[in-house]
Design a protein that fits this description.
It is a single chain. The chain has two domains: 4-28 and 63-153, Rossmann fold; 156-276, Hypothetical Protein Tm841, Chain: A,domain 3. Helix content is 43%, strand content 25%. It has helices at residues 15-21, 45-54, 66-73, 91-105, 121-135, 140-153, 164-168, 174-182, 205-219, 236-249, 262-268, and strands spanning 4-8, 24-26, 29-32, 35-38, 60-62, 78-83, 110-115, 156-159, 185-192, 195-203, 227-232, 254-259, 273-276. The strands form three sheets. Strands 10-9-8-13-11-12 form a six-stranded mixed β-sheet, with helices on both faces. A four-stranded parallel β-sheet has the order 2-1-6-7, with helices on both faces. Strands 4-3-5 form a three-stranded antiparallel β-sheet, with helices on one face. The longest helix is centred in the middle third of the chain and has 15 residues, at 91-105. It is globular. The two termini are 30 Å apart.
Length: 277
Amino acid sequence: MKYKILADSCCDVTEEMKTETGVELIPLTMRLNEQEFIDDHTLDIKAYLKAMKESRTAPKTSCPSIQDFINKFKEWDNIFVVTVSSKLSGTYNAAMQAKALILEEFKDKFIHVFDSMSAVAGETLVHLKIHECLKNNLKNSEVIEKVTNYIKDMKTFFLLESIDNLAKSGRLNPIVAKAASILSIKPIMGSDNGTIRLVDKVRGYERAFQRLVDVIGEEGSHLEERILSIAHCNCIQRALKFKEQVMKRYHFKDIVIVEMGGVSSTYADQGGLVIAF
C-alpha cells in the first residue's frame, strides 16, 4: 500500500528529505505592502527578508485554502498530513474540513491529519517520524498512536536575533521591543501545548545562544533516542556552530539542519534559530 505524506510550508525540509520521505508541501502565502509571496520553491528568501526589513508593517500570512487540500487529497488514496499548530494558524482546520468533504465523495480513502502542536523544526521531526513508522510497515492505527505520542513528548524552542516583526505585527509592545533592542535582550521562546511561552530573557546574543544549549539539558531526556532538528533563517554558520556546541555536551541519535521557508522566516526573521527534539 502506497502512502503520501503532506505538510504545510511551515514544515522546513531539505531536498534530501523530500527524496527520502516523498513529502509534498502545500504552501501558505504572505502579503507584504500589497505584494503577495507564495511560500514555495520559487520564493527568493533573501529578497523577502530584505523587503520585510525595509517595511514599516509586518507581513500577513494566510493558510492554504480548503480547496488547496481537496486538490491534493484527490491525488492519493492513503495520506498522512502534518500541519503547524492549530493554535497558531487555521491550516489544521482547513485540512480537517477538506478531509470531511473529500471522504463524503471518496469513502475508501484514508486521510489522517496531525496537529504538530509546533512549527518549523517541530513539523520537520513529525514528518520524519511518520516516514519511520511507514518504513516499519506499521498499521494506520499504530502510526497514529506512535506519532501522536511523539508530538506530546516533543520540545520546540527558538532564539530570535530580531524582534522587529513581533513589534510590527502587534504581538509585542513597540516600547518593550525598543527597550529590548537597546539593551540587546534576546528572548528564548518555547512551545507550550501548541502556543508560545517565554522561557528566558538573556542580554547579548552569545549568552542567549549558550543559554539555548543549556535549555536542551534542562528540558530534554533520553536524548540518545531523539533526533535534534535545527532550523535557521539565512544563517547556516550559526546553525552549524549550534550543532557543534550541542555535540560537545549531548548525544542525540541524529542532528539535522534545515533552512527556513517563507512563513517560518516571517516570524523567526533574519538570524533566527528554531530547534526541536
